[in-house]
Amino acid sequence: MKKQHTPVFFEEAVEALDIQIGEKYIDATYGEGGHSRKIIASGGVLLAIDVDSAQVKKSDDNIHVVHGNFSDIESIAQNQDFTPVSGVLFDFGLSMAQIREGGKGLSFEKPLETLDMRLGDGISVAEYLEAVDHQSLTHALMKYSEDINSPQIANKIIQSRSSKKVQTVQDLKEIIDSVVHADMTTQKKSYARIFQALRIIVNDELEHIKKALQGAVNIVRPGGIIVVITFHSLEDRIVKSFARNNKNAVTEKVVDVGKMRTLASFERSATLRVLKKI
Ligand SMILES: C[S@@+](CC[C@H](N)C(=O)[O-])C[C@H]1O[C@@H](n2cnc3c(N)ncnc32)[C@H](O)[C@@H]1O
Questions:
Q1: Which EC number(s) does the record attach to this protein (predicted)?
Q2: What is the chain's alpha carbon radius of gyration, rounded to the nearest angstrom?
């Protein structure tokens, strides 16, 4: 029996989709399949997508999961003859299992792993850190980590790579440690921010989110719903400004789950937004 995990906003996200029996829904971030199973159990007809082939390979036999990027949601749905849909769910980020067991250097707690971090195509973090110029690295780390130590960390990366390639999780942690001398808690916060920034960069995550939201609006029927779970302010800002710039196409509301129940620790930085197509 496969170990089941409880996804973020498990009940609330599916409830917000307002599932109508027999209608079509897309789970654009299949992950471990928790939300997908709940959508099916609620009577929805489901198509799921995930960019990570390892997630698709281990998916449930009875769920149709397409290997692809959610930025292509419109063409994926059309190719699968799955339009229009009544709802789309995005649960951004990665699953804990993927971070801990993926073997791609996504967790700063796996020092021996190579800095890969690719979910789909493209170059690895190790390759990026070898090729990027100083100014671009500084700018990208500042923008995507929002860590005040970004310029110094970028300096150190550029200095270090001339004598030794930055290839493993441990290599990067040592560089961060050489800049951030404070206590372990502060160091861990910097690891988390810098690792997240590099993951965003090599997977072009924020651009894919922008395209995905537009694609979802294009395939949802009028009155249909797009539920979005974000994990950090960079993602959330994109969803918020998308809704603001598309007031003629969608209405938007935030569901304050924290007011409804006690949040689990992994849910505290998450936001649940619901867009409804006009
Ligand atoms: C937080 S997990 C989703 C968990 C899922 N809701 C569940 O119930 O198990 C996010 C998933 O989205 C996938 N993902 C991330 N970026 C993606 C993209 N651009 N296109 C498609 N899937 C993506 C990840 O590989 C991961 O499996």
A1: 2.1.1.199
A2: 19
Instruction: Give the residue range(s) of CATH 3.40.50.150 domains in the chain.
Output: 10-91+205-277
pLDDT tens digits for 72-129?
999 999 999 999 999 999 999 999 889 999 999 999 999 999 999 999 989 999 999 9
Ligand 1 nearest-atom number relative to CA 208: 19
Could you count the other beta carbons within 10 Å of the beta carbon of residue 90?
Answer: 24
Ligand 1 centre to CA of 111 (Å) is 24
Superfamily of domain 102-203: Putative methyltransferase TM0872, insert domain (1.10.150.170)
Closest atom of ligand 1 to CA, residue 35: 8
Determine whether the shortest distance from the Cβ of 216 to ligand 1 is under 6 A. no
pTM for this model (two decimals): 0.96
> What's the fold here for domain 10-91+205-277?
Rossmann fold (3.40.50)
First-to-last alpha carbon distance for the chain, in angstroms, is 42
Name the residue at shortest CA distance from atom 25 of ligand 1.
52
* Residue 6, pLDDT score: 83
Q: Measured in angstroms, how far is the CA atom of residue 46 from the centroid of ligand 1?
A: 15
Residue 2 pLDDT more than 70? Answer: no
